[in-house]
Design a protein that fits this description.
The chain has two domains: about 210 residues, Isopropylmalate Dehydrogenase (3-Layer(aba) Sandwich); about 130 residues, Isopropylmalate Dehydrogenase, CATH 3.40.718.10. Helix 11 packs across helix 12. By secondary structure, it is α/β, with parallel strands linked by helices. The two termini are about 20 Å apart. Helices cover about 40% and strands about 15% of the residues.
């Protein structure tokens, strides 16, 4: 049965890095004789330019009908003056909500050859290997903002709302991940101030009884932000609400040395997922061959693992990326600790990853 991957290149360097990931996936599918097709649709600024809205219904329908979605990036200065309801970012929020992708998985893992690129001392970075599970479709980002008009134009209100169901489903996803890792879960909230956080903590404690093998710690978000810098190696799985997860995962991304290396997955209870690099659209380097495709290629590995149940193929990608970095190949954003460092462009880096996969699969006919 044919599988379908919908590709949403988006804006900025999005088309460049998704093209790289599709090349890698296509190579694997042909090598292992998998029947998978790619369908491309618009989102973000590209959709605004073509159709006047950031998320056309055709895009939503195609994503709903596919087995997985690969996304590049959205946004850029070109659309900064758009009114709030037609900004590119609304396309990203909209597709997450439309597909019910409530759990965002963002790993932070140290690559030995990139440790010198971290702003932290290597002693702190070497043991880093944790995952942030961020609730993605609720909270402050999906509240109802007040409008600045009339007598209230100098005052604004944003609402933060969560139901027990919304909290429970993402917390369960985090416990399931912790069970397969080092069995440590850190739940992050602001329960000393926010009522929503107090309910969050109650739900975590309730769900914890179903996972007796997982050690649970509660932490306040401000304390966690500090601990990510002074002792990041202590964490295994971190679960938190939408805005806290957004901020903490961006902080975590610089610990390992490059935003250009970090993949992400947005999941729901079934196999459908949306996979994208953590980095943005980087409009300043568009078309220059400077974009690092590795985060998107690693996101494609997530796609294989979580949506297509192709664990072997996912591992081949991850090993290939590690091997390429060990050999010293790097794009301009990476500082590689190798005597044989070789600067390459986006296409050349992709070529190296495919070659490294080919070496591993030489026995496959």
């Amino acid at each position: 049965m044919t599988k379908t991957i919908t590709v949403l290149p988006g804006d900025g360097i999005g088309p460049e890095v998704t093209d790289s990931a599709v090349r890698v996936l296509d190579y694997l599918f042909k090598t292992f004789h998998h029947d998978v097709r790619f369908v491309e649709e618009r989102i973000g600024g590209a959709a605004i330019d073509a159709e006047g809205i950031p998320l056309p219904q055709k895009t939503v329908d195609q994503c709903q009908a596919s087995d997985a979605i690969l996304l590049g990036a959205v946004g850029g200065p070109k659309w900064d003056r758009q009114s709030t309801n037609v900004r590119p970012e609304q396309g990203l929020l909209g597709i997450r909500k439309a597909l019910g992708l409530f759990a965002n998985i963002r790993p932070a893992k140290a690559f030995a050859s990139l440790i010198d690129a971290s702003p932290l001392k290597s002693f702190y970075v070497e043991p880093v290997d944790f995952v942030i599970v961020r609730e993605l479709t609720g909270g402050l980002y999906f509240g109802k903002p007040s409008e600045r008009r009339g007598e209230h134009k100098e005052q604004v209100v944003d609402t933060l709302a969560y139901s027990e169901h919304e909290i429970e489903r993402v917390v369960k996803k985090a416990f399931q991940m912790a069970e397969k890792r080092r069995k440590k879960l850190t739940s992050v909230d602001k329960a000393n101030v926010l009522e929503s956080s107090r309910m969050w903590r109650e739900v975590v404690n309730k769900v914890a009884s179903q996972y007796p093998n997982v050690e649970v710690n509660h932490a306040l978000v401000d304390s966690t932000a500090m601990q990510l810098i002074i002792n990041p190696g202590q964490f295994d799985v971190i679960v938190t609400e939408n805005m806290f997860g957004d901020i903490l995962s961006d902080e975590a991304s610089v610990i390992t040395g490059s935003l250009g290396m970090l993949p992400s997955a947005s999941l729901r209870t079934d196999k459908l997922g949306l996979y994208e690099p953590v980095h943005g659209s980087a409009p300043d380097i568009v078309g220059q061959g400077k974009a690092n495709p590795l985060a998107t290629i690693l996101s494609a590995a997530f796609l294989l693992r979580y949506s297509l149940d192709m664990d072997l193929e996912a591992a081949l990608i991850e090993t290939a990326v590690q091997n390429v970095l060990k050999q010293g190949y790097h794009t301009p954003d990476l500082k590689v600790s190798s005597e044989h460092a070789t600067l390459v462009n986006t296409v050349e880096m992709t070529d190296q990853v495919i070659s490294a996969i080919a070496e591993q699969t030489a026995h496959v006919h």
